[in-house]
Automatic annotation (TrEMBL):
Class of this enzyme: oxidoreductase
Protein name: Oxidoreductase, aldo/keto reductase family protein
Record-linked InterPro entries: AKR_Detox_Biosynth (IPR050523), NAD(P)_OxRdtase_dom_sf (IPR036812), NADP_OxRdtase_dom (IPR023210)
Organism: Bifidobacterium ruminantium
Ranges that cross the membrane: none
GO MF term set: oxidoreductase activity
GO cellular-component term (any): cytosol
Amino acid sequence: MKSIEIGKSAVVASQAALGVMRMDALDADAAAEVVRTAAEHGVNFFDTADIYGFNVNRDHASSRVLGRAWKDAGLKREDIFLQTKFGINIDFSDSNNVHATRYDFSAKHLITRLDEELEALGTDYVDFALLHRPDTLMEAEEIVEAFTTLHKAGKVRHFGVSNVNPWQAELLQSWLGDDPAMRLEANQLQFGLMHAQMVSDELMTNSGAEGMVVVNHSDGLLSYSRLRHMTIQAWSPFQSGTEYVPFVGNEHFPELNKALDEKAAKYGVSANAIATAWVLRHPAKIQIVLGSMNPTRLGEMLDGADIDLDKQDWWDLYVAAGNLIP
C-alpha cells in the first residue's frame, strides 16, 4: 500500500481509506472482518461522519460500530488515523422520509457533535475533522471558535472540508488564518471513472469541440488542490451516477466494463482493482475512500493501490467511461 501525506499535515497515511457510511448495517463480527481486511491490505485511515446511520436511522451509528470494530480487529489507536465529518442536520424521525433539514456550522453544534463522535468511536481524539459540505449561512466567528476550541482541547488534530469549491475553501482559510493547526488539509469530493468532471472541466478550457458543453462546474478543483497542497479524498469512486450502481460488472456499461476487463487481464488483477488504480494514477496524489462492506470485493479494490497504470491505459478507461477528449 502506497502512503501519502495528507495536505501539509505531516500525517503520512495509506493512499486508500476505508469509508464506513454503511457499516451500521453490519454486526460486530462482520464489521471487524471488514476492518481487518482493510488493515491486512495496508489501510490505516478510516473515514466516518456523525450522520452515518442510514440503515438503523440513528446518528453516530456507523461510527459506533467502527469504534468497536477497530478494536475487535486488533488495531492500536496509535497505529491508525480516524476522520469524521460534521455540520449536517438529519431528521431520522420518519424512517420513510429520512432527510437533511439544514446545515449547522455553529460552534455549539460542531463541538457537541464532535464530542458525540469521540464517544461513539471509542477515542479521545480524531486525526481529522471535516466540515460536511458547505453551509451558505456559515459565520467566521463560529467556525474559528469551534476549530480553536476543539484543537486546543486535543480533540481534533487536523481539519478539512468536504464538497467545497476553491473559493469556499479560500474564504474559510482566510477566516482561520495562517496558523498551521488551522490549515484545511483535505477536501472530500466525489471522483472516479464515472465522476471525472474535475478532469473534463480542465480539458474543456477554451474548447468548442463538438459534443462538449463548456460549463466548468468544478472551478479548477484539481489544479487548485495541487497548488494549495490540499489532499482530494475521492468518495464513492465506484458509483455510476445512475440507478445502476456500481458500474463494475454492470451490464448497463458494456464499453467501460470491456475496457476494465482488458486492463485487468493485462495487469493480472480484477476489474475492481483497475477502477481503484485509475483514481490513484492521477499525479494529484488523491486518497481514495472505499466504502464496500464486502471483504472480498473490498480486497479486490485495494489490490489496485499497488498498480501503476500506463498513461495510455488511463486515457483508454477515461474514454470508455463516456468522457471525451477535445
